[in-house]
Amino acid sequence: MSNRENRLIKTLECHVYILRISRNKIFCLDKNDQITVIPFDVVEYNFNIVLLNQTYDNVIKIGRNSNLCGLTFSKKVQNKGFPELAIHLNKDKKFVSN
Fold it and tell me: DSSP code of 27?
């Protein structure tokens, strides 16, 4: 991420070397020199990117289309430093009922 933010995206049983990340898959080399494809959920990653780019329409789309609860999602938005957007999300009846 451009702001040097790092996150744990998935816990694995063994060490791997990441070769490539494409969409929702991580291509990696395991300790047995086998290439492994590991699926992961990209919602959190996409959420951070749209907040960094301040594309608020996309933030709302992610909130509506993800499996996150509306109020929990708006709390994350507020904690990331966008309280005005969180207030807007809480007023949106379609979003809160998600």
Answer: E
Distance CA 40, CA 88 (A): 29
Burial-class residue 15 by CB neighbours within 10 Å (0-12, 13-18, 19+).
Answer: exposed
How many helices (H) and strands (E) the chain has is answered by 5, 3
Query: CB 63: neighbour CB atoms within 10 A?
Result: 23
Alpha helices in 7-92 (DSSP H): 43-52, 56-65, 70-79, 83-91
Given a contact cutoff of 8 angstroms between Cβ atoms, the answer to whether 79 and 89 are in contact is no
Is 46 within 8 Å of 53 (Cβ atoms)? no
Contact 82/47 with Cβ under 8 angstroms? no
pTM reported for the whole predicted model: 0.54
Judge whether 26 and 40 are in contact, CB under 8 Å: yes
Interval 30-51: pLDDT, tens: 889 999 998 887 777 788 788 8
Instruction: Extract the tokens encoding 31.
Output: 């300790």
